[in-house]
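User: Structure please.
Assistant: Input sequence and predicted structure:
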Amino acid sequence: MWTRTYNRDSFTGLDYADQRFYASSYGRFATADPSRRNVKPRSPGSWNSYAYVEGDPVASNDPTGLLIYGPGPSYCEMYPEDPGCSFCQDDPFGCSNDPDPGPDPEPGRTRPIDLVTDYFARGELNTRLKNFSGSNCDKAFNSVIQGYSSKGLAGAVDSTEFYNVSNPFFAGSTQDDVSSNGSSTTLGNSIPFGTAAVTVGPGGAQASVLLGRNFFSNTNTSYQSNVLLHELLHAYTGWSDSEIFSAFNKYGLTNPNRDTEDISAWLSTDCTKTPTSLTWWK
């Protein structure tokens, strides 16, 4: 059960601190502050994106991981000419010590980020794609997907967001929250029974991959990496399962088990054939 404290992640050995990872053995954060709002040209303490509340946890705190709150006059009160301080007018806390250096990509919206699952899924995919260029799958993708490149597919790994729908921090978020697809279905209710993963969104940078209990219960590396590649294919192309089956039929992709997992099984053979076994990863 996750609580709003530091939690040890079994995949990485790091502590999850709501917005980023903390390496207790080194006494520092292992990932940078995800908020652009913490960088202030006139405050050198804010230049270290791996610090917490600019190195002053006694006088300040950061409950959301995105804004610094502390005593004394706010940064915007001290430097009202800073263009970023226009953001403070809409902040219920007055921005405290923290202006915004520029407009948000989606004004008024904050996309929740599952850092733990991102770290794990992207690591698995980067390993899976390490020798992908020149493979049979690479050639099949190049023949079928307009504008495809193995470099572009690898780049999609970091632009796609991944979520563990069993994590209570994110289970209540909606599909629209994570992909702007207009659906009010919560992430916790987005994975059909027996399904390992689902990709939501229009594809591209707004796509999000939702991972269910079935995905995490099977810890086989071949299984997980090819399920993730299957979902990345959705994110990269914006295609549905039926469109993928149709597009790659002449490259050995069939549907012998009448299950969308046949796509993952096909990928595991370097896109040469579709295994009929339900335990194709062994």
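The mean pLDDT is 79.
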